[in-house]
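Design review, sub-item: ligand-bound model
Attendees: FS, YL, KQ
YL presented the inputs for the S-adenosylmethionine complex:
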Amino acid sequence: MTTSTDRPPLHPLFLDLSHRAVLVVGGGNVGVRKTREFLECGAKVRVVSPLFHPAFTPLEGQFQKTERTWLPGDESGCRLVVAATSDPATNRAIYAICSQRGILCNVTDVPELCDWQAAAVARSGRTQVAISTSGGAPSLASHARRELEDWLSDGFSELVEIFAKLRVESKHLLAGPEREHFWKTLPAAELLEDLRREGALACENKIRSLLSSHISATNSDATTPKFGRVVLVGAGPGHPDLITRLGLKVLGRATALVYDRLVSEELLRAVPTSCQMHPVGKTGFGKSHGQDDINALIVELAKAGHLVVRLKGGDSFVFGRGGEEIEACEAAGIPVEIVPGVSASLAVPAWHGIPITHRGLSRSFAVVSGFHADGTEAKIPDVETVIVMMPLHSVDSVKRRFLEAGWEASTPCAAIQAGTTPDEAILFSTLHAIDSDLAASGLHSPLMVVVGKVVGWSSLHRPQTDRILTRGRGGLAG
Ligand SMILES: C[S@@+](CC[C@H](N)C(=O)[O-])C[C@H]1O[C@@H](n2cnc3c(N)ncnc32)[C@H](O)[C@@H]1O
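KQ shared the predicted structure:
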């Protein structure tokens, strides 16, 4: 995501300033506000200014006061600096020195001279939500802050306190992944409702009772080895919103994620921050983790008690080797669940307005692989639409096989690269020209070729299927 000014988004973080030195240059309104905020975070605040606003008086003694104009070197040892003097040249000089010394500086109201910006913060109890519009609409950030504060104080921050208290109390009762699993799988939305309806004590008691049932179940099972489980989740064709709701829910509970290259970054952010991340994807024909290594990894993680999510592009059972992973888990006595995914083989043509069946043109379709590790060539099935996956390095032989099977050289084809992602591209051609057109196009993996009359139909109807409402990365456009 980028902002409308094409600056990348700011990186949000919560900074520990307790006992750290920070410098505020300027004794006006902004200076006093920043001093107060930094003091609340436990920072050691230095303020340099020839004059001090009377609002500083109640803070006297809590900060180090230097009554003179700023001098280079005042920033020594500081984590953060705020330049809030009334003289733009001084502010610029402070920023320049901080930049040289690698100290993060904020020049008030000059976004291009800000390494950091304070967020609007919605606070309730120990819960804080920081909001930024990257300077675009600070008034809307304040609006969001008020709304969020209402929501947080309507039970959520109380629930946070209950969780925090019980987590400490029960720490010794459950070990490692078991403990993680318990807290992660608690029905948070339901508990929040209980708390609102029946009060904090009832909610706390409910969690206590869930905890004791969980502990007794764990103990009664103490003699058998504690295995986790594996869930094969199909991530969809690339667009992060084309995963299923169930897939997304399971991701939110993963304690270990084993994922492919074609999986979108957004989905990787859907797992809990404590989740172990294991990328096993391969790039093109480069070195990859062999399937045996992947099988061994998911088994090992599950044996350690993890809830292992094996996240694959599309659907796990469409050229996804999901069956082999089930066999490996079965051999190790590990339970496996499958959450179907939207296979690229069906979704990508649809995304581009190609109906793989259409009355009068196609009553059947097949999905075939262009690439075979063992060097054999798949026969072209007797159907009316064929989706060729992994065709890039075998397009000559794919074309030859179609022609040998009696397909017309003029049959329309579409080569689609990275469908549903920002990198997508489509090339329309015919069986006769697909090899040379593809070579000239520079299209790259992931790529599929769709062959059949329905491709010709779709090219006539393209304007009708232009993506307006659903073109945005985050789901709906605009
Ligand atoms: C090993 S197969 C995995 C297919 C996946 N399990 C599925 O159901 O979509 C990978 C191939 O699928 C095709 N593919 C996957 N995602 C694609 C996309 N977004 N656009 C075009 N082709 C894609 C490409 O041919 C790629 O080389």
